[in-house]
């Protein structure tokens, strides 16, 4: 394992108040979002949309890395330039989603286990050859009566750890994403308790599987009430609870934490990140940034509607959101 190369990639991904752009929607997820936005659900429209994203002028000023889906790795702009080279030319490091989705976990009703370990070493060799420098694997943990169980959390933590060591062997920085999802009517206190339990188990297993902590990035959820909860939380409360939870669980050896947005609207996702930096500037052992999909892309996708004449304005909307999250990383975001 080339530890120095991993440290250097992680440093570049966390540098300069930038953050990550998750554009790694699987085909079913991309189609679902297209359907909601009234965009044709075809490979060509997915290619056009991803071209819109990667060719957004100035994106590299705000985005350090972009997470791609396998289909996108092989796609090119209309004039034949591969998306990977467009990103590299823009100073954006290309990464890849490696998991093959969360499936129902046998014997654990209501819980999911993420698949994709079979053949992963060989896939990683191909992706490393294609120039990808980092990767992502998402585990899904749900909150409801009696769940999550330790059986589900340990199984997902083990898969995350196996994926992470294979990435590091191949020279790619693993983003470890154990997402406690927002669905449900649980309180912010419950989200804190579950996220803390999940992160403790994840790091216990990462360490036992010999994941090199200095060469990985954690992608967690923020601490929030469930989407159907009647409880409201202030921006400051979300920032406080999230940082408190991370400080209890994430070793200082980990260079960076990059949040998922998880269904928060773009403004909330920026405001929460901003408040963490206002309240904890220079007091945290790791870099704290964003790795959003919906909270960066949604305004652009909604405006685009699949129409060429809307591309320039949609790109401006994407750039604006990326810029605003840069400001949030400096604690200077204004809605
Ligand atoms: P959201 O920001 O839309 O939650 O997506 C982030 C992500 O990469 C989920 O795996």
TrEMBL record:
What protein name does the entry list?
Fructose-bisphosphate aldolase
Which PANTHER family does this one have?
FRUCTOSE-BISPHOSPHATE ALDOLASE
This protein's pathway = Carbohydrate degradation; glycolysis; D-glyceraldehyde 3-phosphate and glycerone phosphate from D-glucose: step 4/4
GO BP annotations listed:
glycolytic process
Q: Which family is annotated?
A: Belongs to the class I fructose-bisphosphate aldolase family.
| Keywords carried by this UniProt record | Glycolysis, Lyase
Q: Which GO terms describe its molecular function?
A: fructose-bisphosphate aldolase activity
EC annotation from Swiss-Prot or TrEMBL: 4.1.2.13
Matching entries from Pfam families are given as: Glycolytic
Supply the enzyme class, top level. Answer: lyase
**Chemical reaction(s) catalysed:** beta-D-fructose 1,6-bisphosphate = D-glyceraldehyde 3-phosphate + dihydroxyacetone phosphate
């Amino acid at each position: 394992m080339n530890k120095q190369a991993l440290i250097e990639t992680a440093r570049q991904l966390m540098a300069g108040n930038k953050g990550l752009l998750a554009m790694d929607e699987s085909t079913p997820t991309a189609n679902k979002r297209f359907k909601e936005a009234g965009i044709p659900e075809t490979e060509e429209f997915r290619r056009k949309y991803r071209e819109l994203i990667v060719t957004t002028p100035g994106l590299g000023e705000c985005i350090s890395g972009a997470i791609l889906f396998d289909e996108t790795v092989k796609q090119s702009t209309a004039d034949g330039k591969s998306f990977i080279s467009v990103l590299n030319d823009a100073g954006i490091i290309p990464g890849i989603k490696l998991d093959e989705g969360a499936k129902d976990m046998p014997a654990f009703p209501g819980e999911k286990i993420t698949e994709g370990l079979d053949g992963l070493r060989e896939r990683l060799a191909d992706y490393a050859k294609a120039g990808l420098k980092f990767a992502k694997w998402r585990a899904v943990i749900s909150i409801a009566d009696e769940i999550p169980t330790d059986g589900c959390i340990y199984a997902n933590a083990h898969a995350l750890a196996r994926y992470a060591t294979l990435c590091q062997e191949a020279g790619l920085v693993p983003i470890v994403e154990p997402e406690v999802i927002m669905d449900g009517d649980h309180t912010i206190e419950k989200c804190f308790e579950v996220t803390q339990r999940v992160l403790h188990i994840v790091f216990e297993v990462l360490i036992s599987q010999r994941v090199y902590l200095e060469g990985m990035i954690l992608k967690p959820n923020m601490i929030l009430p469930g989407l159907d909860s009647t409880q409201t939380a202030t921006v400051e409360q979300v920032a406080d609870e999230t940082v408190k939870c991370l400080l209890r669980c994430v070793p200082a050896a980990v260079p960076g934490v990059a949040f998922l947005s998880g269904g928060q609207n773009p403004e909330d996702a920026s405001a929460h990140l901003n408040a963490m930096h206002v309240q904890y500037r220079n007091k945290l052992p790791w870099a704290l940034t964003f790795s959003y999909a919906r909270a960066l892309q949604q305004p652009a996708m909604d405006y685009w509607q699949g129409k060429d004449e809307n591309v320039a304005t949609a790109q401006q909307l994407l750039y604006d959101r990326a810029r605003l999250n840069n400001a949030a990383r400096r604690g200077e975001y204004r809605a």
